[in-house]
């Protein structure tokens, strides 16, 4: 039997190019697609494969025994297997969940590009899945922000009423606490988009971002961009993580002026070694006409990791 | 990047039990399911996973750019990947082709049992797929026999007219010669069910079987069953393969009497080391009420290989 394993290995291509895998985890409507889309647009869609873990739904909507937050509601071992295959440069036949009908339909062939961005509810749930990623991010907005995002999205583009969305949030709370939020501790970077609590900003002020940069991966050196003169827009603090471990915490303020924000974006872009080029317009984009510097800088840090991991 | 590969290996289970994989290849209506089903029934369905490569159709019937015999008409690299996964004891999310509608539908989770029988048009097409099998069989009936089987099956259970079936056979001939028949050279065992040419048997006489037992695997010792007194029912000849290499050729005659046939079955069963037990009734079954000793003995030889490979 052992010789068969050798034959299999010899017949398969172990020398394929290995893509970089970035996980963007978080609860429903935490901003995962928005963060991911800017990175895809900035890198160029031909260099990226986007993968939503929603496609690994195990049940058609009509026959779902749990909410979508429960691990048993997904083919998570198959997700981990597919991440392994993609991480070693192999194609997968990906299941496809049709959100409009709530049904699993014909699967789709996915060839790994240079960068694979995996966003979803539970990409960091299993140890094997986590081992497949080069960089992992958890999006952690305050619950009231996420609630308003979810209401906006689900009532405008998924055909639900506000009452239905609120009822679903209540129904999902226990499983959110049990399965989604524990993934926060497995992320290399935790991002929180939120207003600054001590301030009373005018409505419409962009949200600020705080980025916990954990030492689980080699974090970029932002010192150039963190000159004291920039502190109104961006600064970094030594902090303690939830479990007491030391961590760097970068803050990008949404209330900075457009000029200060543009300068900060350029300085971070420069500090990350992208000297020659302009900041890609796709970064920081929210929907058709909103823009956010805290989002843009978050995406720059993730892009940096993706490009550094591929070297 | 190398450390990620190590993390992935450590997080995955390399110590799973490894199933035995048997391939049954052959053209459309060559008897693949009939041969496979008897083995599954004799081993017990709980010990077997049956896999049809038809499920790896790449196109819905309405959009098919080739006949089903063309390798590009299938997800063959994904089939090879899935065989690799099953061979190492891992589950797969298998695509599903619905023959009644000609469409790919929601995929299905398949956990590998102790024995995996893979039957289809092209299981031996790629080197990687071939490396995954412990035993490979090619069914090679004379074309006029296969044609009559195909007409019977496709007109009775697949809703075609005889004219449609005959037209399809003509349409497929070139691709059959180009892609299906070359697999014959990659099989450990080649089985031909056919009437004995020199004889003029009464209609209804069961077909005889000839089994080429190639030295690519350790073939069973049938000497006990091949006593000269048995030669009317079963005998073995030293022969030359298509390419001139020496090969054993076992012949089981359909025209032997029921008593001679029953004795031959018992002797082969005994020679293969299944002493204590009776010959399973499932072996040799064709449809609801036909039975064939040449088929039963063919299935015994394959069962022997499957059980020997698992030891």
UniProtKB/TrEMBL annotation, chains A, B:
Domain of life: Bacteria
Pathway where this protein functions: Carbohydrate biosynthesis; Calvin cycle
Tagged with keyword Transferase: yes
Xref: Gene3D superfamilies: P-loop containing nucleotide triphosphate hydrolases
Coiled coil: none
A GO term, aspect molecular function: phosphoribulokinase activity
Catalytic activity: D-ribulose 5-phosphate + ATP = D-ribulose 1,5-bisphosphate + ADP + H(+)
InterPro entries, per database record: P-loop_NTPase, PRK, PRK/URK
Keywords, in A-Z order: ATP-binding, Calvin cycle, Kinase, Nucleotide-binding, Photosynthesis, Transferase
Cleavable signal peptide: none
Keyword Lipoprotein: no
Bilayer-spanning residue ranges: none
Start and end residues of each Phosphoribulokinase/uridine kinase domain: 22-195
A Pfam family of this chain: PRK
EC number of the protein: 2.7.1.19
Family: Belongs to the phosphoribulokinase family.
Name the UniProt record assigns to this protein: Phosphoribulokinase
Organism: Mycolicibacterium crocinum
């Amino acid at each position: 039997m052992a010789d068969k394993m050798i034959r299999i290995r010899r017949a398969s291509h172990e020398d394929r190019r290995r893509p970089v895998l970035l996980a963007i985890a978080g609860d429903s409507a935490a901003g995962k697609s928005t963060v991911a889309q800017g990175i895809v647009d900035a890198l160029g869609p031909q260099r990226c494969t986007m993968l939503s873990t929603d496609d690994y739904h195990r049940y058609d909507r009509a026959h779902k025994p749990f909410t979508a937050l429960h691990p048993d509601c997904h083919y998570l071992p198959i997700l981990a297997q597919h991440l392994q295959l993609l991480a070693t440069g192999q194609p997968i036949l990906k299941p496809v969940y049709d959100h409009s009908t709530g049904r699993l339909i014909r699967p789709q062939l996915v060839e790994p590009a240079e960068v694979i961005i995996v966003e979803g509810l539970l990409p960091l749930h299993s140890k094997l899945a986590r081992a497949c990623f080069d960089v992992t991010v958890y999006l952690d907005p305050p619950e009231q922000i996420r609630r308003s995002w979810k209401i906006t999205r689900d009532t405008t583009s998924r055909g639900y009423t506000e009452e239905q969305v609120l009822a679903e949030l209540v129904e999902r709370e226990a499983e959110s606490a049990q399965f989604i939020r524990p993934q926060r501790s497995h992320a290399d970077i935790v991002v929180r988009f939120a207003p600054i609590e001590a301030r009373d900003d005018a409505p419409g002020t962009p949200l600020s971002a705080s980025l916990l940069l954990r030492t689980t991966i080699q974090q970029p050196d932002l010192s150039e961009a963190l000159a004291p003169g920039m502190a109104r827009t961006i600064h970094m603090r030594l902090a303690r993580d939830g479990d007491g471990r030391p961590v760097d915490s970068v803050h990008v303020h949404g209330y900075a002026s457009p000029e200060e924000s543009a300068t900060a974006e350029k300085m971070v872009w420069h500090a990350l070694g992208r000297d020659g080029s302009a900041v890609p317009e796709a970064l920081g984009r929210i929907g058709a006409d909103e823009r956010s510097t805290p989002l843009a800088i978050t995406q720059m840090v993730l892009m940096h990791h993706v490009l550094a991991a591929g070297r």
